[in-house]
Design goal:
By secondary structure, this protein is mainly α. The chain contains 8 helices and no strands.
Length: about 240
């Protein structure tokens, strides 16, 4: 396990507050991860009840986002944090925004799953399951990197995003071919294509959170650069 980059403060209450928001972010992330998994399984298996559960759980995610955001505002006002403490608060605020958006994707996939529950499964559902597993794995890994403040684990998520993009491109081509072969498949194909796009965005949001972890630990902003450039910056920072 990597050493925690956060240093202890003179005020134990401040330490408690910072640890509390970290734990609440992880709890929110766990709920979001659960919702994503249920939404994907509902879509693949045609389980209407599971789809409804994933869709209806989004309100809990929204409430958690608001509560964490309010706590961060109070810490900023009371403690006026600087340096790494300020980076932590900034990271938390951005992270819960990405988690809330992932929750929105899970809700919408769940609703599509409910609508399609009584329909025949498409051939592309095998590829959709694979893509869903990649997206869930990325989310799980980025939450683990957040919990341990692990830059190396975070960079694994950043590099792995290309796999999700490739899976999305392949599934898109397959669905377009499927719809062109029979116009009766267009509506279902579009629904599945939309879900694939939602999973691709889940991967993007997971990547965003991983990049926040790098910023939190090293103070390096690796957004909008290639993974190779980001790795070079990280290695230069460690020298």
């Amino acid at each position: 396990m990597k050493p925690d980059p956060l240093k202890k403060h003179i005020s134990q209450q401040f330490d408690t507050e910072l640890e509390d928001i970290r734990n609440r972010v992880l709890a929110m992330g766990g709920l979001v991860e659960k919702n994503v998994g249920e939404a994907i399984e509902a879509l693949i298996s045609g389980n209407m009840e599971l789809g409804e559960e994933a869709a209806h759980s989004d309100y809990q995610v929204n409430r958690m986002e608001l509560a964490i955001d309010e706590e961060c505002a109070h810490i900023l006002a009371r403690r006026q944090p600087t340096a790494i403490d300020l980076r932590l608060i900034m990271m938390v605020i951005k992270t819960i925004t990405d988690l809330e958006r992932i929750g929105d994707k899970a809700e919408k996939i769940g609703r599509v799953a409910v609508q399609m529950a009584s329909e025949d499964r498409l051939v592309a559902f095998k590829e959709l399951r694979y893509m869903g597993e990649l997206a869930r794995e990325a989310l799980h890994k980025t939450l683990d990197a957040f919990a341990r403040m692990d830059v190396d684990a975070a960079m694994d998520v950043v590099r792995g995003d290309d796999l999700i993009d490739e899976a999305y491109d392949g599934l898109t081509r397959q669905l377009i071919t499927y719809m062109m072969e029979d116009s009766r498949n267009i509506r279902r194909g579009i629904d599945v294509l939309w879900c694939a796009r939602a999973l691709e965005r889940v991967g993007d949001h997971a990547k965003n959170i991983a990049e926040y972890v790098v910023f939190m630990v090293l103070g390096k902003d690796v957004r909008h650069v290639s993974p190779e450039q980001a790795q070079e910056e990280i290695l230069a920072n460690k020298r």
